[in-house]
């Protein structure tokens, strides 16, 4: 009898210990302190309301925005005209502490999000965050050039600092449904969406990234080259994938920021599938919090840089009046190491 009671006590003690460990782990997850860099985008407000307000129907548990650096680009209206309002909202409505330097935000946080709408300051902002050694999400566009984007990832790689970047469209339910329509790769995909032009950035970086990310979500990696046909209102960018598959983007330059005119059409092996719905920031934010918890990005460096090489190759093709441009060449010129390069273009048969 004493042996049975003793075994029971041991089992109860083990169960209590396991429960305490789980509770401790949950508490740690719920206590991830997030710092924001750049309050000149709606993402700063939308992410914060989902994280800091448990009553919000789209609440994402596991973290809380605690500090922010406002930043801003005075020479860019899309930044300068919005920063004051978003800063006031985060400070007054959600209790976020606005700090004067990036270093102070890093010190007050466990993980960072660089959200500045302008890609030009991202390299300098990323340098400071990487110095802190803390994981960070880098919002679109990664930078204002492929060269800067490669440099950011190289710095993070050398410092062993986890980094992750993506457009929210990658996790829209409608995009995921099209991507999973068949188990085999698509023969071709057509994507279209808004791509208003922004000074100081390649044409697709600022807003065309959303449709481009959707295109790559369905097509997958393996884009070899790009050619572009350009007009003032629209650009048609066609990518050649390994295996002779084609991904085509219609970048609609006259559609404004905030336009909901996005669409994907997948030409599969057995059927054609069209995107039936869109989404919001919530699925991506769940991925960001999971990334902060695990330090494992859901999109790799190579996958991300291939997308930006596609967009910069489209810019180079435009400059060369529609010439075919190799993604491998673009990434090599930008300083990417061999392990991040796509395959070379196949040699033409004589």
Show the helix and strand layout.
Elements: H1 2-30, E1 32-37, H2 42-52, E2 63-69, H3 77-80, H4 83-94, E3 97-98, H5 102-107, E4 111-114, H6 122-132, E5 136-138, H7 146-159, E6 163-164, H8 173-179, E7 188-194, H9 209-219, E8 223-230, E9 234-241, E10 246-252, E11 263-267, E12 272-274, H10 282-294, H11 301-319, E13 325-326, H12 327-333
Parallel strand pairs: 1-2, 1-4, 2-3, 4-5, 5-6, 7-10
Antiparallel strand pairs: 7-11, 8-9, 8-13, 9-10, 11-12
Helix pairs in contact: 2-4, 6-7, 7-11, 8-9, 9-11, 11-12
Signal peptide: 1-29
Keywords: Signal
GO molecular function: nucleotide binding
Brief digest:
This protein has helices spanning 2-30, 42-52, 77-80, 83-94, 102-107, 122-132, 146-159, 173-179, 209-219, 282-294, 301-319, 327-333; strands spanning 32-37, 63-69, 97-98, 111-114, 136-138, 163-164, 188-194, 223-230, 234-241, 246-252, 263-267, 272-274, 325-326.
Structural account:
By secondary structure, this protein is an alpha/beta fold. The protein folds into 3 domains: 1-27; 28-166, Rossmann fold, CATH 3.40.50; 169-340, Dihydrodipicolinate Reductase, domain 2 (2-Layer Sandwich). It is built from 12 helices and 13 strands. The protein has helices at 2-30, 42-52, 77-80, 83-94, 102-107, 122-132, 146-159, 173-179, 209-219, 282-294, 301-319, 327-333, and strands at 32-37, 63-69, 97-98, 111-114, 136-138, 163-164, 188-194, 223-230, 234-241, 246-252, 263-267, 272-274, 325-326. A 7-stranded mixed sheet has the order 12-11-7-10-9-8-13. α2 packs parallel to α4 (83-94) and α6 packs parallel to α7 (146-159). The chain starts with a helix and ends in a 17-residue tail after the last helix.
């Amino acid at each position: 009898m004493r042996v049975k009671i003793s075994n029971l006590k041991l089992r109860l003690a083990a169960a209590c210990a396991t429960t305490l460990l789980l509770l401790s782990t949950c508490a740690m997850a719920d206590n991830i302190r997030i710092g924001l860099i750049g309050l000149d985008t709606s993402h700063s407000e939308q992410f914060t309301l989902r994280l800091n307000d448990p009553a919000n129907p789209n609440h994402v548990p596991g973290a809380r925005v605690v500090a922010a650096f406002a930043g801003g680009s005075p020479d860019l209206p899309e930044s300068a005209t919005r920063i004051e309002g978003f800063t006031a909202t985060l400070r007054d409505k959600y209790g976020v502490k606005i700090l004067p330097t990036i270093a102070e935000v890093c010190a007050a946080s466990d993980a960072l999000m660089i959200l500045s709408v302008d890609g030009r300051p991202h390299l300098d902002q990323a340098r400071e965050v990487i110095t802190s050694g803390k994981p960070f999400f880098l919002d679109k566009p990664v930078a204002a050039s492929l060269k800067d984007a490669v440099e950011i990832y190289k710095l993070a790689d050398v410092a062993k600092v986890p980094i992750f970047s993506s457009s929210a469209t990658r996790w829209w339910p409608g995009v995921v449904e099209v991507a999973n329509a068949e188990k085999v790769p698509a023969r071709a995909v057509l994507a279209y969406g808004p791509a208003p032009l922004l000074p100081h950035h390649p044409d697709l970086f600022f807003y065309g990234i959303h449709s481009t990310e959707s295109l790559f979500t369905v097509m997958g990696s393996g884009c070899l080259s790009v050619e572009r046909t350009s007009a003032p209102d629209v650009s048609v960018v066609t990518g050649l994938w390994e295996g002779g598959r084609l991904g085509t983007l219609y970048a609609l330059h006259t559609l404004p920021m905030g336009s909901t005119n996005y669409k994907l059409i997948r030409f599969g092996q057995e059927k054609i599938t069209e995107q039936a719905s869109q989404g919001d920031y919530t699925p991506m934010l769940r991925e960001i919090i999971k990334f902060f918890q695990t330090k494992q990005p859901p999109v790799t460096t190579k996958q991300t840089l291939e997308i930006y090489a596609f967009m910069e190759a489209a810019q180079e093709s435009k400059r060369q009046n529609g010439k075919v441009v190799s993604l491998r060449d673009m990434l090599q010129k930008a300083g990417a190491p061999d392990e991040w390069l796509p395959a070379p273009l196949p040699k033409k048969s004589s």
